[in-house]
Specification:
The structure is a single chain. By secondary structure, this protein is an alpha/beta fold. 25% of the residues lie in helices and 26% in strands. A seven-stranded mixed β-sheet has the order 6-5-4-3-2-1-16. It has a seven-stranded mixed β-sheet with strand order 7-8-9-12-13-14-15, covered by helices on one side. Helix 8 crosses helix 10 and helix 10 runs parallel beside helix 11.
């Protein structure tokens, strides 16, 4: 489970940062990847990234501003031209279907697979394998969503030595016991999985926010997350401008991470006002408040480790 940042800029691209797009790599867990937002030029970014379009199955759109959606038609047609045949699902606010279908229709673009649309407002929007995705509205100039990706807990390690002491050799019954089931041995004894399994391993939680001011739903989405991806469009001296345009500062993102008790904060959606090394200023403002902060850059990745067994 890994985050890969294709674009980390805000509003318009710069020489260092393209506009917003993030990949959640779930190859190990589901054999696919999901994308969150798709700004203009995303398909060009993919050419320089370890991202296979054929294995990209879902796009979650935060809101309908151009720097988050202008790359979708190109992404879909490139995916088709590369021979992808599996359906592709686009999940986002009302209007995303009309936008995409209009672009493809007017340009007479052909897509050789089914494009599915799920226009949403809030609630659980997806279930796939051990994952579920929840969405809640944020506070922006237009309707904007944040997403919370939740992985189910995994069964704890099976104590094989304890089972061997019961006279049970490794085999199919081990799998049933690890799943928490009970099994009956030939001599009539009943073994219960819960008695031979270690503590469950907690699933990971990743929160990816669209453009937003600080608001209560941000804390709800981010609560106890392993990773919070939060916009940091402005530095602290432009807090009034951030509020005026319904954005956040790096300091505000850090305070959100602290209050929500997340493990890691990643700042993205960086204004072109902070080119090159000047963006480090945002990191310098956030880390004294929340030390576990990183500043995303294009083509940077962050691997999300599995949790520790609960006691």
């Amino acid at each position: 489970m890994e985050l890969y940042f294709l674009g980390t800029g805000a509003g318009m691209p710069s020489r260092q940062r393209n506009v917003t797009s993030v990949i959640l790599n779930l190859q190990e867990e589901l054999g696919c990847s999901w994308m969150f937002d798709c700004g203009e030029g995303t398909q060009h970014q993919i050419l320089q990234a370890p991202v296979k379009l054929g294995r990209l199955t879902r796009l979650f759109v935060s809101h309908l501003h151009g720097d988050h959606i202008f790359g979708i038609p190109g992404l879909l047609t490139s995916r088709s031209n590369q021979g992808a045949e599996e359906p592709f699902t686009i999940c986002g606010p009302k209007g995303i279907r009309r936008y995409v279908e209009t672009c493809l229709d007017i340009s007479e673009s052909r897509v050789n697979y089914e494009v599915r649309f799920e226009e949403i407002e809030e609630g659980e929007v997806c279930r796939a394998g051990p994952f579920r995705v929840e969405a809640k509205p944020l506070e922006h100039r237009i309707f904007s969503l944040g997403y919370r990706v939740v992985e189910a807990d995994s069964p704890g390690t099976l104590d094989s030595d304890k089972l061997k002491a019961q006279g049970l050799a490794p085999g199919p019954l081990y799998g049933k016991l690890k799943n928490g089931e009970s099994v009956t041995l030939p001599d009539g004894r009943v073994l219960h999985g819960r008695d031979f399994r270690g503590p469950d391993i907690p699933g990971r939680v990743v929160t990816l926010l669209g453009d937003t001011r600080t608001c209560e739903t941000v804390y709800e989405l981010a609560k106890n997350a392993d990773v919070l991806v939060h916009e940091a469009t402005f530095a602290g001296d432009r807090a009034d401008l951030a509020r005026q345009f319904y954005h956040s500062t790096a300091e505000q993102a850090a305070r959100t991470a602290l209050r929500a008790r997340v493990k890691t904060l990643i700042l993205t959606h960086i204004s072109s006002r902070y080119p090159g090394e000047e963006a480090e200023r945002l990191l310098a403002e956030a880390r004294p408040i929340f030390p576990g902060t990183y500043l995303a850059r294009d083509f940077w990745s962050y691997r999300i480790p599995k949790g520790q067994a609960t006691t």
